[in-house]
Write a structure and sequence with these properties.
Rossmann fold; 383 residues; seven-stranded mixed sheet; alpha/beta; globular; binds nicotinamide-adenine-dinucleotide
Length: 383
């Protein structure tokens, strides 16, 4: 039996990404699947229905009912209503963010839909080609810098001319994971002087490897398992803010990307620290949607903040991967196609729960919530 893979047209306003490209369609077909794309699904990424058809996909009406036995590829988490409308046995593959969307998880459980959250994949080397968190964070890190450059109104690199010398921009990156490291490398390529801070032990070397200067606050490290950071206790978090304050005041541009899985983003920059920066400075907060690393950042807003002698710009990032939709879709689509190939054998569905990538990313299956942490958090919501 041939598996039917369906590509969803994303419903969220402003979402331009899509979970397949013509190249990933070819890959899915080579693995034995037939592919149907919802009409217009690729337009935000400049991909036409005709381009998908040329790659061998069929085009179906946007929002058309999903056939039983379909693997549905998506970017954004499906709503509870959309999930409830799926036939039992549908398999969904995409970003789920299950702790933030408990209603969609229970809807999938009750509708006997199997959901795979690519954002829950264990980050082992074999998962790299399916790792949507990494592929999308990479683009977010790049976009942070180009957003800041738009708002800055000055050059990043030092420039000497007969009329005078332009000083290089001083860029500070807080949180040097996948997005932060890409931001450092990008700002560096534009000629800025870049420094960074993070709480993971490996981060000092990682920052240096992409050309940044690591700011060691002598706070010790804070690590959970799997290469992730741990939340700092309140006194250490306050101390981190105090120690960062002079570095922030000396920067022209502050880019923040700090995150702790399952927690609100750590507050690294207070309103007082923002107010102590020079006029013309720019701050961009990638964590604006998840609690905010910077006090006062609002997702999707460019705020002009008065400071002594003028004003600065505080940008709260929102959906910034969509600003680079063609590339974001290209990587996301290949992540989805690689995972789909993992759950197929000879053109048929084959769910091997002994594979840690399959068992690590499944959220619901056979009418049950299979991920223990997600199940516990849903029980917590109900209690
Ligand atoms: N092996 C793999 O295949 C693989 C793939 C991707 C990422 N990783 C690793 O996973 C780790 C997490 O990457 P991520 O970008 O998804 O992380 P993330 O998005 O969870 O967090 C972003 C960064 O914020 C930092 N952070 C948290 N609290 C902070 C604080 N108070 N101050 C400063 N920084 C703070 C984290 O240490 C992290 O570097 C990294 O070590 C990365 O190298 C491994």
């Amino acid at each position: 039996m041939t598996i039917h893979v369906r590509i969803r047209a994303e419903r969220a306003p402003g979402e331009k990404r899509v979970a397949a490209t013509p190249d990933s369609v070819k890959k899915l077909r080579a693995a034995g699947a037939s592919v149907q794309v919802e009409s217009g699904a690729g337009l935000g990424s400049l991909l036409t229905d005709a381009a998908y058809e040329a790659a061998g996909a069929g085009i179906v009406a946007d929002h058309a009912a999903v056939e039983p036995g379909t693997v549905l590829l998506h970017v954004r988490p499906l709503s509870a209503d959309e999930t409830s409308a799926l036939p039992a046995g549908t398999v969904t593959v995409g970003t789920l963010d299950p702790f933030q969307h408990p209603g969609s998880v229970t809807a999938a459980r009750d509708a006997r839909v199997t959901t795979f959250a690519l954002d829950m994949l264990p980050r082992i080397s074999r998962a790299q080609s399916m790792d949507v968190l990494s592929s999308q964070a990479l683009l977010a890190g790049y976009r942070l810098v180009t957003l800041a450059a738009d708002a800055f109104g000055r050059m990043f690199g030092m420039t000497m001319t007969a009329a005078g010398t332009l000083a290089p921009a001083r860029v500070l990156v807080l949180g040097a994971g996948v997005a932060g490291l890409q931001a450092i490398a990008t700002a560096k390529r534009l000629g800025a002087v870049v420094s960074a801070n993070d709480v993971r032990a490996a981060s000092a070397d990682e920052v240096r490897s992409v050309g940044g200067t690591f700011i060691d606050l002598d706070l010790g490290t804070a690590e959970a398992g799997g290469g992730y950071a741990k939340e700092l206790a309140e006194d250490r978090a306050r101390r981190q803010q105090e120690l960062l304050a002079p570095h922030i005041a000396a920067s022209d541009i502050v880019l923040t990307t700090a995150a702790v899985p399952g927690r609100a983003a750590p507050r690294l920059v207070t309103a007082d620290m923002v107010a102590a920066m020079r006029p013309g400075s720019v701050l961009v907060d990638l964590a604006a949607e998840s609690g905010g690393n910077i006090e006062g950042s609002v997702p999707g807003e460019w705020r002009t903040v008065p400071v002594p002698g003028g004003a600065l710009t505080l940008i709260g990032a929102r959906d910034i991967q969509s600003d680079l939709a063609p590339d974001a879709s290209k990587l996301y689509a290949m992540n989805c196609a690689n995972f789909t190939a993992l759950i197929m054998k000879d053109g048929d569905l084959m769910l091997d729960f002994d594979d840690e990538l399959v068992s690590g990313s499944v959220v619901t299956h056979d009418g049950a919530v299979r991920n223990e942490r997600v199940a516990a958090s849903i029980e917590g919501v109900r209690a």
